[in-house]
Amino acid sequence: MFTGIIEAVGEIRRIEPKGQDVTLEIATGKLDLSDVKLGDSIASNGVCLTVVALSSDSFCADLSTETLKRSNFASASRGARVNLEKAVTPTTRLGGHLVSGHVDALAEVVSRESTGRAIEFWLQAPEHLARYITEKGSICIDGISLTVNAVDGARFKLTIVPHTADETTMKGFQTGTKVNLEVDQIARYIERLMLGDKAAVSEAQPQSDVMALLGRTGFLK
């Protein structure tokens, strides 16, 4: 579990294909690895990766075909910068929101504009995830806990203050940049719970039925 508050920006040092899978070595920059051991989790661009090898300034992780399919690591290259966060401890300040590191899909930056000292981004999410994104709700982009400031269909706006831009990879985001997207866990669990006994049916519930059920129970106005 993570909070989405980035601790360091690292860099991909090595990419080693292994059949359909990949092993990455990530140089960790200023991230303190003194309390990290084999088997621990480190969120890398919002993807929960398991440490399989460790040095004083880097770690290695294996990426499955599922991870490559859902994240921007499929197109990653040596030297690419990544946002890093170690897993939370019971005493960690929850400065962002609850982030699992289980990326849902890719989103795409569709516009970037400076507003005062801040940067405003509009991003396009996959249509099937739009129902989980709400104004003033939380969202995780490349591992960063952010507040959604406006929503227009499957598009949403983020306003990035200078500190966040300086301490993450967001300063380098441009129109067309593909980013890892994780929606708020609570929204997903509510939708699943509202299915009740229908959740046990093997075939997926049509979205229209789910939305009708949420409407009948007062969750949609």
Automatic annotation (TrEMBL):
Pathway assigned to this chain's UniProt record: Cofactor biosynthesis; riboflavin biosynthesis; riboflavin from 2-hydroxy-3-oxobutyl phosphate and 5-amino-6-(D-ribitylamino)uracil: step 2/2
Q: Where are the Lumazine-binding repeats?
A: 1-97, 98-194
GO molecular function terms attached to this record? riboflavin synthase activity
Instruction: Offer one example of a GO biological process linked to this entry.
Output: riboflavin biosynthetic process
User: Which UniProt keywords are present, listed alphabetically?
Assistant: Repeat, Riboflavin biosynthesis, Transferase
Gene3D superfamilies named in the record: 2.40.30.20
Recorded catalytic activity of this chain's protein: 2 6,7-dimethyl-8-(1-D-ribityl)lumazine + H(+) = 5-amino-6-(D-ribitylamino)uracil + riboflavin
Does the keyword section mention Aminoacyl-tRNA synthetase? no
| InterPro entries hit by this protein | ATP_synth_asu-like_sf, Lumazine-bd, Lumazine-bd_dom, Riboflavin_synthase-like_b-brl
Which of the seven top EC classes does this enzyme belong to? transferase
Q: Which residues cross the membrane?
A: none
Q: Which residues form the Lumazine-binding domain?
A: 1-97, 98-194
Enzyme nomenclature, EC number: 2.5.1.9
Task: Please describe the quaternary structure of this protein.
Answer: Homotrimer.
Quote the function comment for this protein.
Catalyzes the dismutation of two molecules of 6,7-dimethyl-8-ribityllumazine, resulting in the formation of riboflavin and 5-amino-6-(D-ribitylamino)uracil.
According to UniProt, the name of this protein is Riboflavin synthase
